[in-house]
Design a protein that fits this description.
TRAP transporter small permease protein; DctQ; 0% strand
């Protein structure tokens, strides 16, 4: 995707890129923190005692990292590759297959986000907590839900970018190199 300068679509494109990049940094920070917690717990178990609840925190941080990386993956079209069979049918077929794949991913993430929201309401309502630290489980669900909404926004942008490229007679630009 070539970034435009002043159009509304160009602003949307820059915003999507900033959002995805910011979430990648957040996801990376989650993984670094998870590694530090694990290291502190290992050192603690050898010297004094392990860090209580470290496993609960590491699980949550790794889960958040995965959700944080999804928007960037979608923005760079890392979810769908169409070049194995479709390349024999030419560029236009590959473009329409890419659009179909991006639409499928967007619909799937819409359903996943919806169902995750239902799960969030359930976790909030039942008061479930983690076993050791007694943290409310819904906190992690809420953070993941926000990340899923961000991914859904990126999915909608990618489909809009695909449609715009096809409408203007351009090939869909795939950053990961599948075209």
């Amino acid at each position: 995707m070539a970034i435009e300068t002043n159009s509304a679509f160009g602003r949307w494109e820059r915003g999507a890129g900033r959002l995805a990049t910011t979430l990648v940094v957040f996801g990376g920070a989650c993984l670094v923190l998870a590694c530090l917690l694990t290291g502190v717990s290992i050192v603690g178990s050898v010297t004094i005692r392990p860090l209580p609840g470290e496993i609960e925190l590491v699980e949550a941080l790794c889960g958040l990292a995965v959700f944080a990386f999804l928007p960037y993956c979608q923005l760079k079209r890392g979810h769908v590759g169409v070049d194995l069979v479709m390349s024999a049918f030419g560029g236009k077929a590959m473009d329409y297959a890419q659009l179909a794949g991006d639409l499928i991913v967007a619909v799937l993430f819409a359903v996943l986000t919806w169902r995750h929201g239902v799960g969030l309401l359930d976790k909030y309502g039942n008061g479930e907590t983690t076993p050791l630290l007694l943290l409310p489980v819904w906190w992690g669900f809420a953070a993941a839900f926000v990340l899923m909404l961000a991914n859904l926004l990126i999915c909608v942008f990618v489909v809009a970018a695909d449609l715009r490229a096809l409408r203007h007679g351009n090939s869909i630009v795939v950053s990961m190199g599948s075209h």
